[in-house]
Design goal:
By secondary structure, this protein is of the alpha/beta class. 48% of the residues lie in helices and 15% in strands. It has 2 domains: 206 residues, Rossmann fold; 136 residues, Tetratricopeptide repeat domain (Serine Threonine Protein Phosphatase 5, Tetratricopeptide repeat), CATH 1.25.40. β6, α6 and β7 form a beta-alpha-beta unit. α13 runs antiparallel to α14. The radius of gyration is 21 Å and the shape is globular. The protein starts with a strand and ends with a helix. About 1% of the residues have low confidence.
């Protein structure tokens, strides 16, 4: 089965520029797609210095939905959202004051990869942290979700007026240009040995082996059914798990909400945009009614996903019904994307004219 490779290199333009992330892309592009992926054939998608987090999300979501192995090569710099203290991958327009709106939240990676079959997904990362992110990571970590391999490093801030090089990722690319792809733990160790130190201080090594057996999580069976086109079966499996969680812990529990979110993703995979939107709206409402903040990542994510799916609803009557509910939520959860409520209201006016 063909693999999928996503090459993402991003860094800000201007004062906050810490690492020449895009310089690694020509080296990676010189490696054959099959070697990058570890499969006989592979599709490669390249994102060089993207401007908008939604553009990155769209490409990541498409890659995560593809069958077969998935490998992400991520090069760039981390900056902290000062409001929520969450690490983000800085994009071209990111400044310290606009991280929340112009950078890509790192936790979105785990959210998009959660339905991937365990052991089929790997993230290779070469990241440089600004001072705030570096201090934050001293007491935390970066996660990409269960069943996903993570290899790489996070380097400390380079000296002032210095732009660092992505030496770890360049070492990975150089090793792969030989045409041989060693086992990922070995590739990781060899790349670390070749990479030069940055700023005179040791970095944080990222090494999570996806081959470590996971609990028979039921996600694998659900994903297999969905990828085989058995969408009703997959939805029924997730629905049963959700009801079990509701009985055991309550409708507002993270366990129950997790399975509701899985159902929303399954509806999206089945091409049921209206059904997916409806579930995401319900998830957001439950979270808000349970006292979660309007800017909590899980709340914002649910409303943003509902908004995204709403845009794909073709039937005007259903779109109008869901749009009214979405507009009510957007008043409470404006989200990171400026003008989201205005967009809903404009579309509703257009739909009114149709129906």
């Amino acid at each position: 089965m063909p693999g999928t490779v996503l090459l993402l290199a991003a860094s800000p333009v201007g004062k906050g520029y810490l690492v020449d992330a895009a310089s690694v892309l020509p080296v990676l592009a010189a490696v054959s797609p099959a070697v990058l992926s570890g499969t006989e054939t592979a599709n490669v998608v390249e994102l060089a210095d993207p401007l908008e987090p939604q553009a990155v999300l769209t490409r990541l979501r498409a890659a995560a939905a593809a069958p077969g192995p998935l490998t992400l090569f991520v090069t760039g710099q981390l900056q902290l959202d000062r409001r929520q203290r969450l690490p983000h991958l800085a994009l071209a327009r990111t400044t310290p004051a606009t991280v929340r709106y112009t950078a890509f939240p790192w936790h979105w990676i785990a959210e998009e990869l959660r339905l991937r079959p365990p052991g089929t997904t790997t993230v290779l990362a070469d990241l440089h942290a600004d001072a705030e992110s570096w201090d934050h990571l001293a007491t935390g970590t970066l996660a990409v979700g269960p069943g996903v391999g993570l290899y790489g490093r996070v380097a400390p801030p380079p000296p002032r007026r210095t732009v660092a090089a992505p030496t770890y990722m360049k070492a990975v690319a150089t090793l792969l240009r030989s045409g041989h792809r060693p086992a990922l733990p070995l590739l990781h160790e060899q790349a670390l040995a070749r990479a030069e130190g940055d700023g005179g201080r040791p970095g944080i090594v990222l090494a999570v082996d996806a081959r470590v057996p996971a609990a028979p999580d039921p996600h694998a069976a659900i994903t297999a059914a969905a990828q085989a086109g058995r969408h009703d079966e997959a939805a029924a499996l997730a629905g049963r798990r959700e009801q079990e969680a509701v009985r055991a812990w309550g409708a507002a529990s993270e366990e129950a909400l997790h399975w509701a979110e899985v159902r929303a993703d399954l509806a999206m995979l089945a091409g049921d945009a209206a059904g997916s939107c409806r579930v995401w709206l319900a998830v957001a409402t439950v979270r808000l009614d349970a006292g979660q903040a309007a800017d909590a990542p899980a709340v914002e994510s649910a409303v943003d996903r509902a908004h995204h799916q709403w845009g794909r609803v073709e039937d005007p009557l259903r779109a109008r019904e869901l749009g009214l509910a979405l507009a009510g939520l957007r008043l409470r959860v404006p989200g990171r994307r400026r003008g989201a409520l205005d967009h809903v209201q404009r579309e509703l006016s257009r739909l009114e004219a149709q129906v």
